[in-house]
Amino acid sequence: MITKFMQNTLERIVTKVQSGLLAAGLLLTMFTATAQTRDYGDAPNSYATTTAGSGPSHLPVAYNAVAKTAALMLGSRIDLEADGIPGTLATGDDTDDMDDEDAITRFPLLIPGATSYSVTLTVTNTTGTAATVTGWIDFNKSGTFEAGEFATATVASGATTVTLSWSGFPAVANFGYIYARFRIAANAAEIALPTGAASTGEVEDHRFFIGRPVSGTVFNDLDRNTRINAGTETFTALPAPLYVYTVNGGAIVDSAHVAANGAYALRAPAGLGSTIELSTVQYPIGYVINASNIIDHTPPAGWVTTGENVSGTNTGNGDLSPDGILSVSLPNGTTSLAGRNFGITCKRAGTNSSADICASETSVMLLLGFLPDADNGGTWSQLTGSGINFNAAAGTIQLTSTATTSTYQYTMPGTTDCAPSSSVVTIVVRAIPVHYQSITICEGQSVCITNPGGSSRILQAAETVCYTTSGVYSDTLVGAGQYGCDSIVVTTLTVVPPPALTVTHASCTGVGSIAITSPTGAGYTYSINNITYQSTPEFKNLLPGTYTVYVKNSAASCVTSASATILTTTCTSLPVSMTSFDAYKKGNTVALTWTTATEQNNKGFVVERSADGISWKTIGTVNSQAINGNSNTKLEYSYTDKLPVTGNNFYRLKQIDFDSRTVYSQAQLVTWSNGHNISVYPNPVTYELTIEGAELKGSHVRIFNAMGQQLHLVTVQSNDNFVRINVSKLTGGVYYITVTDNNNKVITNQKFFKK
């Protein structure tokens, strides 16, 4: 084992031997062959690197162990080893924590398919005589140096560079790492092969990357649009040294030092995706990237990364991720990529801004969040205001119950290359709006408060609360007010019971009348079968039958209903005994059908239509089928209204005697809408209600009473276009049919009357 003292003594003796001051034979008798007196290679051992494999070695001339120099060497430094140290990175012989493989800083571009190549080496020759340099590059990546991969040149005494050139070798293998070996010696015969010992000089093994060129610019992106603005955003001097790396397969495969004007050029593999990454830190080629080893993309002090651009100068947009990383891909056949640019610029404090903050906000807020165009790294100070907890170090605020409008200044310090800047954020504290409302509803109804975005409660966005009893309610609607603040709705609710209803009815020759005796007077309106409300409390010329009478409190819209029947027992016989009268949609028309059991002195029927149940007009006539107007058998009649109006269509029959007496039937309603084609008939209905139409397929049919309570639900099969519902058990009155699709969208909403 050689101690440090022995090693230092050895180095002094070797220097004297090389200077002719001590006989070499004496040296060999003093130390064994394991002393570090020679220079070895460090390529993988398939290239014959170790002594056991006859690897290359050199005895330096006039070696200076302190300065690590010799009179004949590659580059400007040399260190010594005890043997070759093979390794994948070809850096194993750096035993003195120095890189003595300094003849080449960066290999010229070598692309797949090339058959010629040149490399210029830096050399040192102060021996006073010429020397020789030889080199091998494993162009075909076979793992050995072959005869066709050899080049040589003479190095004159005093020369500092030498160029080796290759030509006529087989086409360069596809992208990836390849190895090179260079040797310099005074005796050319000693270095005619990549192996064996030489009595002078040095050997260097290198690994470098075959790829295709990628170039671009690091520019001063003043307007932060990730594009170079010609003539205004290029550098003349960088704020700090910058480096660009090609990363592939989890390691750096090539690197470039960014020029003073921001330009760079390096290599990337064809046929694979890689990343081009910007850094202020210099890393070696082969640097493995993992969780503990990463590339530092921090821009120079006082600067910020603004993005990357893949489209070239003055065109395209950035990759929207300002992180100093740019993805690139060279498909097979692509010879090069240009205009792969990086943007950096001075940090800035942004522009003045204002923010509306709700007085109810209690969270800790980051002030920088109110400056979307500002960069991190500045300092905060408060200018005006009170009632806000301000943390200058963290750059945060938190409102208190006494918060007032406040202003804060953000200051970005300057650097050698960047001027200082500042901006002001104004925090405007907004009060919670309160809305008061007084609502009157009828008993059985409800009023609902919905947060669009109960006693006191908080409603989140889209939440609803309903009230049915009288009282005062305060509801906080979260985020529903102006500026996105909470708002408060205070509701004073009055519930009005429906009016009591007293009805009398009378019969006379063939027709009857119904009178509402209580309540009457101003503020009330009246209706039979809920068709049309009128101000008078009496209905005349009614055929015998059962009717539902409604009275409405106009101020509160409260409705009460009662049943009334027109009897026939005390009436003289009617000229026509009508057993049915129906009206329903049929295609684009309305079909009217009616049936008589007996007729006496009947001339015929006049068909009348009304849009409001008050004003009527004749739309057709139908003659009696009875002989001489008299019949004791069932007779059936029909009429088609080919031009119904949009909205309500009320129909009634006026029966006319030969002696000009007239009697009116009950009215039938058909609601017509151009938005759908669904018919509901007969209307009024006694036993079975039919709903028909193409849009009915796969829908849901619901029946509601006048209070909005669901009484019936039918789901229609997807291949059916009609449904029949037995309504015989419903009490007389008004009801509603609602048809919805599978998305709960209303197709139609129609009214019908149960006799």
UniProtKB/TrEMBL annotation:
Domain spans labelled GEVED: 133-207
Signal peptide: 1-35
Ranges where the Secretion system C-terminal sorting domain occurs: 680-747
Pfam family, one: Por_Secre_tail
Keywords: Signal
Residue runs in coiled coils: none
NCBIfam families in the cross-refs: Por_Secre_tail
Protein name from the UniProt record: T9SS type A sorting domain-containing protein
